[in-house]
Design brief:
The protein is α+β, with helices and mostly antiparallel strands. Helices cover 24% and strands 38% of the residues. It has 7 helices and 15 strands. The chain has a 4-stranded antiparallel β-sheet, with helices on one face. Strands 5-6-7-8 form a 4-stranded antiparallel β-sheet. The protein has a 4-stranded antiparallel β-sheet with strand order 9-10-11-12. It is elongated, with a radius of gyration of 19 Å.
Amino acid sequence: NRHRGFSWLGAPVANEENMGNGYWRQRCENGDVWTRNGASEKYIVMLNLRDSFYKNGGYSSLGGPVADEENMGRGWWRQRFQYGDVWSKDGTDYRFVIKFDLRDSWNRHRGFSWLGAPVANEENMGNGYWRQRCENGDVWTRNGASEKHIVMLNLRKEYYAKGGFSKLGGPVSEERNLGSIWRQDFQKGSIYAH
């Protein structure tokens, strides 16, 4: 069996449930079995990813799974759902999601290879801005995600050293290389870093 059956999932602990939108779920000891569209799509959500899924709103917030779990490397695991990606890290309590427009911005800005994994859940910063902190940079959206920016590495470090959102507001541009220095513009000023 593609999902390793009883030896991995354990015994069922609840009856099957019609979740809506074509999804059915069966909860087992170590993971949940999901099917969709007359069982043509079959997924499992196991262990830490399952914990992350339920900790972050479950089906009502994230919808059903659309892919199997992925080993992203460096101990990180991801599973994609309709409205967000669920993340966990081996040996830690890191259990986060990247949802909706922030996920779109994260993907647009080279995702895991560039920004790394999420290290916090989304935050409503006010003034139309949403932020999600990741290992190597922060993903930002504003105004219904018509504006999508990232603040990375030394620019991010300098941004927080200069007071962050409360002093500088949110980003209004992408970073720019000015030769030997990088610049990024914010609502109330610009940051420079090497």
